[in-house]
Amino acid sequence: MDGYAVAGAPPWRPLADVVTAGGASTVVLEPGDAVRIATGAVLPDGAERVVRDEHLDVTDSLVTPLPGNADGDDTRRIGEDWHAGAHLAPAGTVVSPAVLSTALSAEVPSLAVRGPLRVRTILSGDEIRTSGPLARGETRDAVGPVVASFVRACGAEALEVTHLRDTAADVDALFSGPCDADVLAVVGGTGGGAADRLRDAITRAGGEIVVGRVRCRPGGSQLTAVLPDGRVVLGLPGNPFAAIATLVTILPAVVDAALAAEPSRRRGIVHVDDAADGARIVAVDALPDGTWHVRRGHGTATLVGLVGAAAFAVVPPLARGDVVCEIVPLP
Question: Which segments constitute the MoaB/Mog domain (predicted)?
Answer without folding.
Answer: 120-257
